Fold this protein.
Amino acid sequence: MWNLISHFLTFAGGIVSGVMLMCLMQTGKLADKEFETMKEE
């Protein structure tokens, strides 16, 4: 039983960190775009 729970927690943790990584990458891209816009002005 504990094996199943720990497996599920590892799986959920992987998804959460994956989503967080995606969000961080997205905000990074947005920051890059804003920086490019500021440079052009």
Summary: The chain has a mean pLDDT of 86. The chain has one helix and no strands. The radius of gyration is 18 Å.
